[in-house]
Amino acid sequence: MTTTAITHARVFDGERVREEDTVVLDGPVITAVGGAVPEGAVVVDARGGTLLPGLFDAHTHTSEEALAFALRFGVTTELEMQGALTRARRAHIERNDAVADVRSAGFGITPPGGHPSELFPEGKRPGGDGEPAPEHSGGLVMPFATTPEQAAGFIPRLVESGSDYIKFMVDDGTVEGHPGLPCLDQATLNAGVAEARRHGMLTVAHALTLDAARMAVEAGIDGLVHVFMDRPHTDEIIRLIAESGAFVVPCVVLNASMMGITGAALADDERVAARLDDAWLTTLRGSFDRYPQGRLEDVLATVAALHEAGVDLLAGSDASVPVPFLGGVAHGASVHHEMRYLVRAGLTPSDALRAATATPARRFSLEDRGRIAAGLRADLLLVDGDPTTDIHRTLDIRAIWRRGSHFGAK
């Protein structure tokens, strides 16, 4: 194995800036922070730069190709919130240092015809009995539920099929322009969350409205993977979320896209354009545009209130596939955009960096990453300048390491 010493770096370890300026890697593992440079080590002079843990995107829908784009931006782990990359299906990805790593919920529990069915063309909408869809072999579970018994019954099947955590869709279609969608009721949600807890599984909820967020919190959900966008926050909902201990993945970039705000400015940034293909750049310049009546300032105020209340915030994008009507977000690039939104909401740059590193690692029990410390994975991002004072510097990428495998800036 190759020993690498990264020297003269400003080291943000996922929590704070450290006094030490040398980090030593031995193959895929960090072996030392501080101390002497080992004899014979390959030396990377990081003078003028900041070394960060590899970033997380805590909300995606992904593929091996998308994971390759993510890694170009220093995102070394994606958390898939609906998709096929469950445990057995990602073994080759875990060993492939040319793409980001991934964990997955598999498919979320929703009623037949419920979210995300409305995103599919008529005649191609998934539906009904919970059996694996024909295009998904190998036991991938499609958990459609309308009763507490059905929701609870799907939990062991999702666990067996390799889901890393359990997702629940709590969505009546209001924000997506499809009001009246079938939605999990409180009793069904409660039963599913309770059964997941009995199996030791983390639970997360898709909830885009304040009422849906309240339902999820009342059920005992571990995390909300959106921040609601249908109205301003109330003191009550902030208190309920904070007292519950739930984390929130705001996905402000997605909410902005739902309001018709594109990612064109990001796509025009040469640091982004150099790392995405034409399809993704076109997608980034588009938007969902399903909820133009929404107010971005209300969303940012909610994020600020959650942060002030001590709620753990995680950086996520909801990036999926490169089509313009799912636009405004892109794998990798939008994590950097999300961190800017978090700062705009009132977090410090270090808070935003923490939301993309140590906090998601802790909340998803991936304690081998997300920080720079001896014994952890050598997933690292070296950028020019100091993103702990200017969050825009995270895109000034000098080098990336995924399990110790080194990639240059381009």
Give a brief outline of the structure.
With 410 residues, the protein is α/β, with parallel strands linked by helices.
Set down the secondary structure blueprint.
Layout lengths: L2 E5 L2 E2 L11 E4 L2 E5 L8 E4 L3 E5 L1 E6 L3 H9 L2 E6 L10 H4 L6 E4 L43 H13 L5 E4 L16 H13 L4 E4 L3 H10 L3 E2 L10 H10 L2 E2 L3 H7 L5 H4 L2 H4 L4 H7 L11 H13 L24 H12 L4 H7 L2 H6 L16 E5 L12 E6 L2 E4 L2
Helix pairs in contact: 3-4, 4-5, 5-6, 12-13
Q: What percentage of amino acids are in beta strands?
A: 15-25%
Distance between the termini: 24 Å
Trace the largest sheet across and list its strands.
2-6-14-15-16
Number of self-contained structural domains: 2
**CATH architecture classification name of the largest domain:** Alpha-Beta Barrel
Task: Please tell me what the overall shape is.
Answer: globular
Largest sheet: 5 strands, mixed
Helix content: 25-40%
CATH-defined topology of the largest domain: TIM Barrel
Main structural class: alpha/beta
CATH class of the largest domain: Alpha Beta
Q: What is the CATH superfamily of the largest domain?
A: Metal-dependent hydrolases
Rg to the nearest angstrom?
21 Å
Low-confidence stretches: 128-137
- Could you spell the SSE succession in H and E letters? EEEEEEEHEHEHEHEHEHEHHHHHHHHEEE
Mean pLDDT: 95
Number of helices: 14
Number of strands: 16
Oligomer: single chain
